[in-house]
Amino acid sequence: MTSTKNIRFLFVMFLLLRTDVFSAKILFVPANMNSHVLYFSRLAADLTQLGHVTRVLAPSNARVPGFVAEAEIGGNFSYTKYTVDGDEPYLNSRHVSEALVRVAMSQSVLEKFFGVSALLKEVFTRQLRHFINVCVIANSLKRRAQSDRRN
Predict the structure, then answer these.
(1) Tell me, what DSSP letter sits at residue 32?
(2) What angle do CA 26, 28, 116 make, to 5 degrees?
(3) 110 phi and psi, to 5 degrees?
(4) How many Å is the Cα radius of gyration of the chain?
(5) Who's near 43: CB < 8 A, 6+ residues apart?
(6) pLDDT one-digit tens code per residue, 44-58
(7) Is the pLDDT higher at 25 or at 70?
(8) pLDDT at site 145
């Protein structure tokens, strides 16, 4: 009788402690800012340690984090660059910093409004171009993966 209770207890414990393990293929597309590239690259590398397959699609003018070379050794992490305009990310540029300081130091509400609206317009158009480029590249990566599966 006690052995049946023990077996039931072990079976119930097995059901309670059992966990399903799943992994996913995750594509990270950070904004064209050094801080976003660093954050998403670190997140992708850490998720790789948990068994996921990750790819970071980063702009070519963003700084490559130092740990990327180590993370790519495992095989489940890849860091892909795509070309963008400019030598540095726009939001990290001197132009944006000067515009933000000008807005912060301004005494006129109207000048602040026009300064922020001009900056937001420029950021929005650049980010929209960035998003379109990423969509084109992601689509080509998807087609390449589909053709690799067929072969």
Answers:
(1) S
(2) 150
(3) -65, -45
(4) 24
(5) 28
(6) 998 988 889 999 988
(7) 25
(8) 78
- What span, in angstroms and rounded, lies between the C-alpha atoms of 22 and 150? 24
Helix or strand run (H / E) with residue 27: strand 25-28
Q: Which residues of 112-130 are buried (b: 16+ CB within 10 A; e: fewer)?
A: eeebeeebeeebeebeeeb
The backbone torsions φ and ψ at residue 79, rounded to the nearest 5 degrees and listed phi first, read -120, 115
Q: Give the span between the Cα atoms of 99 and 103, in whole angstroms.
A: 6
For the sheet with 25-28, list strands across it: 25-28, 53-59, 77-82
Amino acid (one-letter) located at 57: L
Q: Which of 76, 75, 78, 88 is nearest to 126 (CA)?
A: 88
DSSP letters for 92-108: GSHHHHHHHHHHHH---
Residues contacting 108, CB < 8 A, separation 6+: none
**What is the CA angle 48-71-132, rounded to 5?**
75
In our burial notation (b when 16+ CB lie closer than 10 A, e otherwise), range 9-44 reads eeeeeeeeeeeeeeeeeebbbbbbbbebbbebbeeb
pLDDT band at 42 (very low <50, low <70, confident <90, very high): very high
